Amino acid sequence: MSDFELSQDSSDSQNASAATMEEFLNQEEASSKRLAHGDIIDGVVVRVDPDEVLVDVGSKSEGVISSRELGTKEAGTPDLHSGDRIKVFVLQPENEDGNVVLSLRRARAESVWLKAQDQQVSGEMMDAEVREQNKGGLIVNILGLRGFLPTSQVSRTYSSNLQELVGQRIGVKILEVNRKRNRLIVSQKAAFDEDRARQRGELFEKLKIGDEIQGKVSGLTTYGAFVNLGAADGLIHISELSWDRVANVADVLQVGQDVRVKVIKLDPDTSRISLSLRQLGQDPWDHIEKRFPPGALVEGEVTKIKKYGAFLQIGDGIEGLLHISELAWEHVEHTEDVVQVGQKLRVRVLQADRSRRRISLSLKQVEEPPAGGRAEETEVSDYPGEIERVPQPERQPVYAEVSAAPQE
Q1: Which fold has domain 123-193?
Q2: Do 57 and 92 touch, CB atoms closer than 8 A?
Q3: What's the CATH number of domain 42-106, 3.40.50.720, 3.30.499.10, 2.40.50.140, 3.65.10.10?
Q4: CA-CA to 221 of 20 to 30 Å: which in 31, 59, 161, 328?
Q5: What b/e readout covers 331-351, taking b as 16+ CB neighbours within 10 angstroms?
Q6: Domain map (residue ranges) of the chain
């Protein structure tokens, strides 16, 4: 055998010895680690007996898991086999037999608590099963742990009837984790608001002005109606309910009513959506000049009386002004002296102005002026807020006779 071969064999033998020594030292280091109550360590199942499970945890002696420390009532007993790698909880570093007393049940429970802490930090929404109602709120099962949902953290939709949630799975966010006190507090409201905000953002990205969408009336106010669009509520102002004048929102819509509306304004910064019900139909003012040409005679009903005249509804969504100067050929001091609310009148159209959405009417011009009479000359505004100008009658000159004859 050559010197080279002898040298090579010697080198291989030294490398093998070094590797064996390193493994031995690692094993010694692992076995010399002091275990303490509460440690969660890795182990390998060695043998499964009816009353216990033996686990190799790298210690000088094997660890033991009794049957009562294997599982829980909720999760049941796990099916273990020799060679399975598991995490175990150290109950006792060494018992009277020199074995490490372990718990699989506690290890899994602690792992769940650690996961709950991670979920609290991340703020992720989770599913929870509502088990029962108590005095202060609801008991939930989350990650296999017993959690508490206070009444103040229940979504506004269910806050008045908590029992309705029992047996349901709901979305929650973890607010507090306290392992020492076994305290786990969750919130449905926070999860609901977060999900609602996400859906609202998606809705604003999808909606465009002019879109027609379906919704459900969620509330009525004196100034309009709120419509639930799924992810957000929109407002139909009272002026957008109908082309006719609306005095009471409840005369047009009811809470819970399904309604189709048109989007007329979007404001993502304030999360406001303005809707219209009347704009689904044609604007009655679109062809107003053709419908009510000057000189036409129309029927109307008095809807309001003002000091400057009366408003008459002469069509769907169309009101015209009957100015006080057009009530009669003679002078009228008070509008109510001639007409009353609810009274039906036949009037003549003086002018229809689509751009200003105004119609001027006359009652006196339905008939000819009195014979020999002189029409009252007035120059007045058709609508309130404009200055009225009524010319004063001309003064007649006064003559006197003067005699130039000398006195006798």
Answers
A1: OB fold (Dihydrolipoamide Acetyltransferase, E2P) (2.40.50)
A2: no
A3: 2.40.50.140
A4: 161
A5: ebeebeebbeeeeebebbbbb
A6: 42-106, 123-193, 208-280, 288-366
pLDDT score, position 342: 93
DSSP per-residue codes, 209-229: TT-EEEEEEEEEETTEEEEE-
Q: In CATH, what class is 288-366?
A: mainly beta
In this predicted model, what pLDDT tens digit does every residue of 236-249 receive, in sequence order?
A: 999 999 887 788 99
Given the DSSP bridges, would you call strands 233-237 and 272-276 parallel, antiparallel or unpaired? parallel
CATH architecture of 208-280: Beta Barrel (2.40)
User: For 186-201, what is the mean pLDDT?
Assistant: 88
In DSSP notation, 256-323 reads: T-EEEEEEEEEETTTTEEEEESGGGSPPTTTTHHHHS-TT-EEEEEEEEEETTEEEEEEETTEEEEEE
Report the C-alpha gap between 174 and 188 in whole angstroms. 9
pLDDT in tens, 233-279: 999 999 999 887 788 999 999 999 999 999 999 998 888 999 999 99
Dump the DSSP string for 331-391: --S-GGGT--TT-EEEEEEEEEETTTTEEEEESGGGSPPPTT--PPP-B--SSTTS--B-P
Please tell me the pTM assigned to this model.
0.51
